[in-house]
Amino acid sequence: MRVLILGGTTEASALVAALARRNGVVPVLSLAGRTERPVLPDVAFRIGGFGGADGLAAYLQNEAIDAIVDATHPFAARMCWNAAQACARTGVPILRFGRPAWAAVPGDRWIDVPTVEAAAAVLGESPRRVFLTVGRLSLPAFGAAPQHHYVVRSIDAPEDLSMLPHRRLLLARGPFDAEAEEALMRAEAVEILVTKNSGGPATAGKIAAARRLSLPVVMVARPPRPSMPAAGSVEDVVAWLEAHRSRP
Ligand SMILES: NC(=O)c1ccc[n+]([C@@H]2O[C@H](COP(=O)([O-])OP(=O)(O)OC[C@H]3O[C@@H](n4cnc5c(N)ncnc54)[C@H](OP(=O)(O)O)[C@@H]3O)[C@@H](O)[C@H]2O)c1
Q1: Pocket of ligand 1 from Cβ distances under 6 Å
Q2: CATH code of the domain occupying 2-99+224-245
């Protein structure tokens, strides 16, 4: 059974590693190619877009793919729709495998916003010291609020940061624990955190640190996804694949 895993996430990497050890399942990991030094798996992989839903449908047929697991990032807003469309057209079954969103707990001071543009607007007129952890591709939106001092954290260096005249760039890849995040936020005199609601433990430390420091958090909501069956663990994905494998 050939399984295409749409990746770019720690969930996808964990799934690929688990499936590589199973008989009868051949995982193929697909990456968009956004990260300069991606963590590559020991199994078959491909890098780059498919060319929309049509390109993906053709790929599914040419490569004799039996099932897709959509393990893309919760903020990858387009790929999931393309995949749902291509699967509807070809009859290939698809499963969503992703992390639940973070939920506020007592002590959190979240300001919920629908988009990164709204996040930039909600920072207000007066200059503030902002810890900005939205991913380098979403940084241009904050050019609309250039008065703030931004501590920008990103895995890869952003191409252009000139729209943020007052900034400090930190290049780092998680996981980040709460203690280190708290120390960083203190050292940078951060007044407010901006984050996407990515979910998952690897980057949750900043949320806990903001809670401890009683700092507000601008929380960008996830974009909508198509409805499809979903799994919350590698074991659930394996069970779903087994159920489809045993079908005639
Ligand atoms: N957005 C984030 O905040 C974020 C954070 C961490 C990781 N990632 C990962 O980075 C990748 C790109 O994110 P994005 O926000 O640009 O996604 P997107 O908006 O959903 O996708 C844009 C286009 O990139 C291609 N693409 C996306 N994911 C792909 C994959 N796994 N394999 C092959 N092609 C893919 C597709 O091109 P075609 O139409 O040509 O097929 C898609 O139409 C995703 O794989 C995602 O899991 C994203």
Answers
A1: 6-9, 30-32, 34, 49-52, 55-56, 72-73, 75-79, 82, 135
A2: 3.40.50.720
